[in-house]
Amino acid sequence: MANRKSAPADKELLAPMWVVTFGDLISLLVTFFILLFAFSAVDVDKLRRVTGALTGSLGVMTPKQKKSKQSPFKLNVPSNVKTDLKGAESHPKRQELEERMSTAIQDPSVFDRKVDFSKMPDGYRIRMDGRHFFLPGGTRLKSTGRDVLLEVARFFKDEPVRIVIEAHTDSKTSDLVPGQDALTLTRKSAFEMAKFLGRETAWEPWRIGAAGLGAAVPIADNETEIGRRKNRRIEIQVIWDPDGKGHL
Prior knowledge:
Layout: H1 2-13, H2 17-39, H3 44-58, E1 75-76, H4 94-106, E2 115-120, E3 123-129, H5 143-156, E4 161-168, H6 182-200, E5 208-212, H7 225-231, E6 233-240
Parallel strand pairs: 1-2, 4-5
Antiparallel strand pairs: 2-3, 3-6, 4-6
Helix pairs in contact: 5-6
């Protein structure tokens, strides 16, 4: 009998179900804001490389061998940039790669399309006008863009490097395509380039990555036509990877 009388008292000690649900909600909100704070401090270069690597590793590419015709482009190399790659000092192919790059840079018959060329901590960045690759607001690769990609593949094909293709645009190009935002457009453009490169070469998929960054990383003022033209660009990152560490 004593046990039966104590049962109601035990039930009164239990918390209502809505309190448990409310506590779970608060915990999720706290976790959400912690994640927001963490992502606000993400390094852009690291994000670019991770995005490109994942895209190349998870994307579907059907490589095949095909002889590429020369479609040169000019490398505009600053005088203070040396043609060496991080980690290449002890690699046997370093001298050969430097000599080939140095010869190609100085030969206008090999590289005749103007680009900007800069050094990164783990390789190089080749920056080109987006008009060589796509029409404004378009995602279909132009013949000039295909030629450039074939030349990139020919030049770096046998080198221990990975290629990450980035597509960028300005803040107004997406207005030309109803229903498409800048991020979606650049993602489609970058993937189109990576898919072409994978289809026309014998590279393993992990060697090719793609990232569309929309208008998030401008290099000029989007309030002027000249600035917007500079922001509509393609960047090809050549990442030195002698040990195949990019193979996830």
